[in-house]
Write a structure and sequence with these properties.
This protein is an alpha/beta fold. It is built from 9 helices and 10 strands. Strands 1-2-4-3-5-6-9-10 form an 8-stranded mixed β-sheet. Strands 7-8 form a two-stranded antiparallel sheet. A hairpin with a 5-residue loop joins strand 1 and strand 2. The radius of gyration is 18 Å and the shape is globular.
C-alpha cells in the first residue's frame, strides 16, 4: 500500500491510497459510501491488487484523512465530492498508470453519483454495490421508521447547533460537513433523489454509456430492490445488469448494506468481481 495526496481544481487536498503490484493490468477506483472512510475498503483493495490490478481508495473532503481539524463551518457538498474530488482522484489514478483500462466500483453513494462525475468516460466498466435511491418511501422498512424524524427534526437541529452534522455522537452515518448533509437530506425527501437536481443532471445521467452491473442484497438494511432499480433508471442510456445476491445461496447468514467489502466475502463474493467488471468469463450457473 502506498499513500499519496491529490490536489483538486479548487485547491483541496484529498488523501488517497494505492494498492498494486508491479505489472498491474487495470486500475480500479473505489468510490466510498456516505460517511465511510477508505479504511473500510482496505481488504478488498488489497485483494484486487493480489489479482493483478491497481486499486485506488480515497476519502472525500471532510471525511477520514481528508477532513480538517475542525469540521464546524467546513464548506463541502456532495457536488464537491462528485465534481471535484472524484475527478481529481480519477485523473491521478490514470496518470499513475498511463494507458491502462479503468474500472469503477461505487458503494452506495459512490454508485449514486457516478453520473455526475465529469471524467466518468475514462471507465469502461462499472460495478455498483448496494446503490439505490435514498428517497424515504423506497428505502427499507427499518429506515423508513426513523427517516422522518432524522430529516425533519434531528438533522436541521444538529447542524444549527454544531455547525456540521455530528453523526458520530448521534450514531447516525458519522460526522459530515453541513453542506453534504443538507444536500443529501434534500435528495432523500424528493421522489427523484439525485434527479431532483434538475433536467440538466438527469440528462447527464442519461448520457452515460458505460456498462453497469448493480449488486442488490435482499437483507440490505437501507436499500430495497425497487430503490436500486429506480436509481439506475437514471442511467437510461447505459446497459445495466442487476444481480440479486441471496446470502443463503452463497452459504452466508447475512450480507447487508456493508457486507460485500468485509474480509469474510473473500471466497464467496469477491471472485465474482472479475466477472462483473468483465475481466473474466461469467461464473458457471448453479
Amino acid at each position: 500500500m502506498h499513500s499519496f495526496e491529490v490536489r483538486t481544481a479548487d485547491g483541496q487536498c484529498i488523501c488517497a491510497r494505492e494498492f498494486a503490484h508491479a505489472g498491474a493490468t487495470r486500475v480500479v477506483v473505489i468510490a466510498p459510501a456516505m460517511g465511510v472512510k477508505q479504511d473500510y475498503y482496505l481488504p478488498f483493495a488489497q485483494w484486487l491488487a493480489d489479482q493483478g490490478f491497481a486499486a485506488i481508495t480515497f476519502d472525500y473532503r471532510g471525511l477520514g484523512e481528508s477532513a480538517p481539524r475542525r469540521l464546524r463551518g467546513f464548506r463541502a457538498s456532495i457536488d464537491d465530492w462528485a465534481l471535484r474530488d472524484l475527478p481529481a482522484v480519477v485523473d491521478a489514478a490514470a496518470a499513475r498508470h498511463p494507458g491502462l483500462a479503468m474500472s469503477y466500483v461505487g458503494h452506495s453513494l459512490g454508485g449514486q453519483i457516478f453520473g455526475l462525475v465529469p471524467n466518468r468516460d475514462r471507465f469502461d466498466t462499472v460495478l455498483t454495490v448496494a446503490s439505490g435511491s435514498g428517497y424515504t418511501p423506497l428505502t427499507a422498512a427499518r429506515l423508513r421508521r426513523t427517516s422522518w424524524l432524522l430529516w425533519r427534526v434531528i438533522a436541521p437541529a444538529a447542524i444549527a447547533l454544531a455547525g456540521y452534522f455530528p453523526g458520530r455522537t448521534l450514531r447516525v452515518v458519522g460526522d459530515l460537513p453541513a453542506g453534504v448533509m443538507r444536500q443529501w437530506r434534500r435528495w432523500c425527501m424528493h421522489p427523484d433523489y439525485v434527479g431532483s437536481e434538475g433536467p440538466a443532471v438527469r440528462e447527464q445521467y442519461a448520457r452515460v454509456r458505460t456498462p453497469i452491473t448493480a449488486l442488490m442484497f435482499p437483507d440490505d438494511e437501507f436499500m430495497t430492490e425497487p430503490g436500486v432499480r429506480r436509481l439506475h433508471s437514471l442511467y437510461a442510456g447505459a446497459p445495466v445488469r442487476f444481480e440479486l445476491m441471496q446470502p443463503q445461496a452463497l452459504g452466508l447468514a447475512h450480507i447487508g448494506h456493508f457486507g460485500f467489502f468485509r474480509e469474510k466475502m473473500r471466497a464467496s463474493l469477491w471472485p465474482r468481481t472479475l466477472e462483473w467488471l468483465a475481466l473474466a468469463p461469467p461464473h458457471p450457473a448453479h
